[in-house]
Design a protein that fits this description.
single chain, alpha/beta, seven-stranded mixed sheet, 12 strands, about 30% helix, binds S-adenosylmethionine, Methyltransf_25, SAM-dependent methyltransferase, methyltransferase, transferase
Amino acid sequence: MTRTDGFEDDEFWTEFYDFLFSEQRYSQAEELLDSSPLLAFTPGARVLDLCCGPGVFTVPLARRGHHVTGVDRSPAMLERAREFCGAAGAKARFVRTDALHHVEPEAYDVVLNMFTSFGYFEEHAANMRVLRNMRACLEPGGRLLLDVAGKELLARKVVPPKVVHRGGDLLVQTDTVLDDWARLRSDWVLVRGDRVRRASLVWFVYSAVELRAMAEEAGFEEVEIFGGFDGRPYDQDAERLILRASRQG
Ligand SMILES: C[S@@+](CC[C@H](N)C(=O)[O-])C[C@H]1O[C@@H](n2cnc3c(N)ncnc32)[C@H](O)[C@@H]1O
């Protein structure tokens, strides 16, 4: 039995790949880019896809004519992203680095952070720093779009453990609330043939109010919250917590 801890472990993203990045997610990304008012960027926009993973959004954005940079700290994820990009006949730039340190001053019109790729650092100050880095990467007038599973939504489905079958694999995911709902730990057990693989992830979960306050503290303006990519409000029918904000000046 092997065990993985934390988002920084390259093996986690590879081992659990099929469950995190299903074919359905790739096709859903295409659909969202065709239909979402929140993802309708000006033609040829310079887009930073921060924590891009295997390029689920990076590549289709590049194919739609945007100038996209995908940043991730996992070599395995970037390798998949590059392969996907090549196979799609698209052009994108990929950079291996840590979101904690990635700043390209005023180089982008859009910063994207998709599929709960925020709140990974143990210290609140580090997560704030990532937000400040995102702002620094934007040209004045540029926009951040950050998509997470909001705390209000997670509260509805944290228990009981989730069991997923895919192919011959079985995944059991158990979530535990930590630190008065500040953070969540997700314990994953993957049974693949005779092998059992365990992983444990801890991350900050945010309510809409908390995330808005953090964005404002980081210097963002025109902060808006949505409950889905169709632009719906963040209310009882919300599916995601999506923050859109702009850098002015
Ligand atoms: C949940 S996946 C999301 C990937 C992609 N945004 C998507 O929509 O499919 C999170 C990604 O964040 C990356 N990551 C984790 N910590 C990071 C860090 N400190 N700096 C940069 N990337 C990081 C992981 O390698 C992983 O590819």
